[in-house]
Amino acid sequence: MANVGTAIIPIGGVGSRLYPLTVDTSKAMVRFLTRPLLDFIVTMLAVQGIRVVYMGVSGYHNYVQVYDYFGSGRVIAQRLGLERDEFRIRYMPNIISRGNAEAILTIVKYYRIDEPFIVAQCDNVFDGLDIQDLAEYTLRNQCDMTIVLYEVEEPKDIKRFGVAELREDGLLARFVEKPKTIEEAPSRLINTGIYMINPSSILDFFDSGQGKKMYEDGLLDFGRHVIPSMIEQGYRICGYTMMGVWFDIGTPETYMEATFYFLRLLPTRVFNVDFMYGRLRVLGKSKLSREAQQKMVEMIRDGKLFVGGDVLVGRHTSIGSGVRLRSSVVDNYVVVSDDVIVEDSIVMDRVYIGRGARIRNSIIGRHSYIDEGAVIDNSIIGNNVFIGRGARVIDSKIWPGRYVPSHVTFTSVTLP
Question: Which domain holds residue 234?
Answer without folding.
Answer: 6-248
